[in-house]
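Blinded run. Sample ID left blank on purpose so nobody reads anything into the name before looking at the predicted structure. Input follows.
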Amino acid sequence: MLRTSVFLCLILQVLGKYLAFPDTQAATDEWWRNTFVYQIYPRSFKDSNGDGVGDLIGITNKLEHLADLNISALWLSPIYTSPMVDFGYDIANFTDIDPTFGTLSDFTKLVSKAKSLGLKVVLDFVPNHSSDKHVWFQKSVQRIKPYDEYYVWKDAKIINGTRHPPNNWLSIFQGSAWQWNEQRKQYYLHQFAVGQPDLNYRSAALNEEMKNVLRFWLNRGVDGFRIDTIPNLVEDARFLDEPKIPNTGLPDTDPGTLRHIYTADQNETYDVLKSWRAVLDATGGSKKIFLTEAYTSMNYLMKYYQYGSNVPFNFMYIATLNNRSSALDFKFTMDQYLNNIPPGFSANWVVGNHDNHRVAWRFGEKRADQLTMIASVMPGIGVLYNGDEIGMIDRPMSWKETVDPAGCNAGPSRYNITSRDPARTPFQWDSTTSAGFSTSNKTWLPVHSNYKTLNLAAQKMDALSHYSVTKKLIALKRNPVVQNGSTQIILVGENVLGVVRRLPGLSPVVLLINFSDKPSTVDAAAWMNIPEKLNVYAGSVGSNIKPNTVMSTHPITLPGAASVVLV
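Blinded prediction complete.
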C-alpha cells in the first residue's frame, strides 16, 4: 500500500536528495540515453493495400511522422509468420515476415528508409513460446531429436484412473496451462494461448536456435530487440503446484488466483538473457539495445540491468499508479524506483503500450499529457505507444466485436476486464475514411468514432494540441539540463508534485503537476528553490497555459488536473 503521510514526506524533503545519473565514458555509445522510443502496433498503424490491416509498406510510408516527432527509435510489435491466434505473438517462423504485413523485401526497405531518416529500428523478440504450427513443435510432437526437448512436455497425473494435468498451473489467458497431445501422449505447457506452446530453455540446442534468430535480424540492420514477457521464460524444474491466493473473488480458472512462484522470475532466466547479450555485443556497428518486458517486483526488475537489459521496462504508471493516486503516491514511487537503479544505468518511463488501456483512458483526457511530461523531464528513456502523441482514447468493444484471446477466453461476462482490443484500434491520421488508416470502411478493429475531431492532421494545425505538446516534450530531452542535470522530486503542498532538474550555470527545468481536479495555488519558488519567474515551455492540453509566456512561481496557480513545464 502506498504511503499517504504528508508529514513523513516533508521530513524526507528536508533531508533532501539529489539524484544525478552518471554520464560515464562507457555509456557514450548508448544512443538510447535521454531519448524517446516509439512503439508501433503494426496491425493498427497504417494499411497500404486496403485490406483493413496495417502493414510494413504502410509503416514505411509514415516514417516521416516519427522523424518529425524527433524520436530516436521505433519498436515494432511482432511481424513474423503467424496463424494470428494471438495476433502475431504466436510465431510459426521466427525468421520470416507474415504475408499480412508484407515480405522480407518490404522489411529491408523499411529499415533502409528509417536509417535515412535517422531512426533506429527495434523488433519484438518473443522467446517464451512459438506457435503450435511451428515446424519445431511438429517435430517435437514426433519426438524427433533434438526437437523433442524444444518444448516443455510432462506426463499426465493419473488420479483414480483418470488423466489430469501435471500440476495446477494456470494460463495467463485463463484455464489450465497444460494441453494434452494425443500423438505424443504427454501434456505441453502453454502459459498463454493453447496455440502457444512454451519453449524449453533447459535445451542448449533450443537456446542456440533463438540466438540464431537474433543474428538473423541483426544481419538485416535492426538496432535491438524488445523481449516479450521475459519473466515466464524458465519454469521451476520441480513442477510443484503454485500456492492459491485465498478469497480473490475470481473464478478458479483465472491466473490471479495463484501466486506464480514457479512459473515466473526464475534465476535461470537471467542466465539466458546474459547469453543473448553476448550475441548483441558481438555484432558490429552501433551498440544494440535490449528492452525487457517484466511486470515484476523491484528486486527482480533491477536484476535485468546486471544481466544485459538496457531498458527493463518501468511499468509504474500502468501497474502501480492510477488516476486515484496522489501527488505523494507519485513522489514515493518515483523516488523508490530511482533509488534502486544500479549506478551507471538509465531510468525509463513507459507512458503506454498495446497491452493496457491508453494513457488518456487510464488517467483521464485532462491528464493525458502528464505522463509524457514526466517521461520528458525525468532522466532516462521515455516510451510512447502509437496514438499517445495525439491523446487517443480506448474504444469500448462489444462481445461480438472482441477478437483478443485474453478477452475471448474470459467469456461474455468478463471479456471487458481482460480484453486488450480497446487500446489497439487503428491510428487516427485524419478525418477521411477509416481515419486515414485504410481506404476500406471495414478494419480489423473498429476505428474510434471520435476520429473526425481527434486526429493527427487536425492537431498539426493546433499549437496547443497533444501532438504539438508531445513534439516539444520530445525535443526537451536534448536540453543539457535534462541530459546531465541533477533531479529532485518535491511535494509542493498536498496536491502538487514538482520535479526540478538543475545544472550549474543554466536555468533549471521545472515540472509542476496538479493532482486535484480543482485549482491549486502554491509557492513553488519557495518550496523548490527556483526563480520567481520562469518561461512556460509547455502546458497540458485543456489547461489554457500558453507556451512562450512568463509565469510567476511565487505563487503559482495551476488549473485543475493541469501540468506545466517551465524553463
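Unblinding after everyone has recorded impressions. The longest helix spans residues 204-218.
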